[in-house]
Amino acid sequence: MSGYEIPLFDLPKPPAPVRRRVESVLPGLSRLHQDREPSGRDEPGEAPAPERPAAPPPAAAPAPNRPSGGRDPQELLEGLNPSQREAVEHAGSPLLIVAGAGSGKTRVLTHRIAYLLGERGVHPGEVLAITFTNKAAAEMRERVEALIGPRARMMWVSTFHSACVRILRREHEHLGLPSSFTIYDADDSRRLMAQVARDLDLDVKRHPPRGLLAAVSALKNELIDHESARDGAESEREALIAEVYGSYQNRLIASRALDFDDLIMTTVNLFQAFPAVAESYRRRFRHVLVDEYQDTNHAQYVLVRELVGRSKAAPGRREAAEGEAVPPAELCVVGDADQSIYAFRGATIRNILEFEADYPDAKTILLEQNYRSTQTILSAANAVIERNRGRKPKNLWTDSGQGESIVGYVADSEHDEAAFVANEVDRLTDESLAKPGDVAVFYRTNAQSRAFEECFIRVGLPYRVVGGVRFYERKEVKDVLAYLRALVNPDDSVSLKRVINVPKRGIGDRAEAMLDALATRERISFGAAVDRAAEAYGLAARSLKAVQGFAALMADLREKVAEGVGPSEVLEAILERTGYLSELQESTDPQDESRAENLQELVAVAHEYEGTEGSEGVTGFLERVALVADADQLPDGGEGMITLMTLHTAKGLEFPVVFLTGLEEGVFPHTRALGNVQELEEERRLAYVGITRARQRLYFSRAVLRSAWGAPSYNPQSRFVEEVPAELINWEREAPAPSSTAFGTQTPALTASAAKFRRPGFKSLGAGGREPISVAAGDRVVHDTYGLGTVVAVEGRTGEHATVDFGSEGVRKLVLAFAPLTKL
Ligand code: ATP
Ligand code: MG
Questions:
Q1: Residues 686-694: what's their mean pLDDT?
Q2: Whole-structure pTM over 0.85, yes or no?
Q3: Which atom from ligand 1 is nearest to the alpha carbon of 100?
Q4: Which of 361, 595, 634, 703 has an alpha carbon within 20 to 30 A of 627's alpha carbon?
């Protein structure tokens, strides 16, 4: 996958492939680009960069509804049914489109924007469209660009988070923030929270930072600040969370940083505290459109309300209220309550269910025709979602015919399940029924991708994993970006601490603690303490020298930034002067080669960014990068490859062929949900999302024995399968008869399809008493628990220990005689 792409939001056009420039950017490193394997999420560099051309010039864009020269409204409305048309043409009061999956909600939004600009004379700068996927954003932009040309760039198409960042960067002075404030991603926030927990002397077993962070995040999504949390605390736990929240927030402020939740909350606060600022945005955005509205949380809901300028207190008014110069903007939201899958992130379908109450003059349009799926798929989806209580019944229909039956398959193990999928894709390809690029494999949790990856690698099927370890989450990339952030924002303590001893320069934990103490004593930031290290108590002479060297290095690099050179040049200077690159280049660890390559890629991305219109130097670059982590990562490229992704990532997408895998109680639905009605209903909505992604063919599969997570588990069939009428499913293989189940020692007979992919080495997986394997540095291996890895080094006179890098599972030293390891 190409998770290192700059997101499409707000960019004038999709970035051209980054690789072209590589040689000019870092000469001497380009050889590292050779020998790529065609797949793998472990190495984003391995996946061929999508050789995606820049957006075609408007004249060449194959937009079906593009009026040729003149503006024929009929053409803008072409390909829409009457309800969809009504939604596109509706003017004035707020508009809510609630409809089931595949009924054209996103299509309506796209057409509506085109219609606003083409037919109603709306200026592109007056439009704010909130989408959740790059794909939808790109499509909207493309369509509008085809219609009105480059002016389309003035339109804001973005996620909530990027829209807020843009606003906050412009209005930072009102908030006492520097324009170079840092955005902390989930990992940074966790580091900060860990420091808070340490400060407060919390037992990390009882209060893991991740849990504290989730609690604080939930409060922020409800727009509750830490003082209110403290005042409202009703239990010891709530009081503790409030204290943690306050301390966490102080640290964020001291670091001049905002976390993701702050982006929304701070923007809301800005609008509420400075009505004139809010008004200026209301004046600007006369049309606000929101896709996937069911997944907005309370903070986002209020943000929309502030932007549109319509409140419950003054329902139905068409004129501006007293003291408010601007009448409300036109609001159009589309969503499906049955697809709300982010309750755990504070999204609340209340927003949809009560839209009509909050906006009494709102118009609601229902869309009932599904254009995506066959009747069989639709019937299955309906049967499942009907089990949820308290939902509005829907009457979704399609005229695309019954279609194929759902194919069911019960595999013996997750490896057999993967082999079944691979075999089926082969068959569909052989019979010209589908191509690998038409196929998506969905699973409930990221860890499940491994069995599929192992199998697809072995049989040579091209695939990409969406949402695995992402480029910007890699250590080396985060390290170098931390340098960049610390240069721009000297108070950013998380970033500074991350790099103060990377590469190693003799500044240990003790020295860091002394600097921390100095910062506390003098009430200065950690960064300022670094600059005044001579005043720190108890710093050994050698450490002091090292800190001063680091401070001088940073000062030097900061001068470069002050000179206004672009981010790529600053990055190159960082790589060189810190010694980061030479350390990687001199290393014999093969992983370091790909690390150097990733950094090279980062420089190229920065270079690319500088070439885009409206680029804003180092700060602008960091902003783009920070938001990538929040964006969906579905690359535009990857045609011809099977797509592997979690069900959560699949929202809004569609594929001709869909495999819903791991349909087992305890897997999907997730164990956590088993005893909880609300959580089960959320899982069921996830099942509904999964099923409705399929256009023509749908597969249900499960494994009788699943061993990938350490202890083997035997899970019964998922209730979601039981909920689908039996006549819709054609079982290609059913559960083995009790006498021959995997509960016994005998191996159940393999079906011909699964056997086709069995190789001798593969069979030993999970079995005891295997032959010790012999490996060499650079070999690709599979471990029963850690999954895919690359051998980094082999030690011992006869090669009995191997150090293996398992990517996100870490680097591990293994005894070859005992490790459940298979060489690929
Ligand atoms: P989801 O709830 O999954 O986000 P959605 O309601 O947004 O779905 P779209 O993705 O907009 O649905 O549309 C589903 C498919 O149906 C798309 O391929 C779209 O192009 C097609 N489609 C929508 N409306 C029509 C129409 N009137 N005629 C032909 N095809 C249509
Ligand atoms: Mg949609």
A1: 97
A2: no
A3: 2
A4: 595
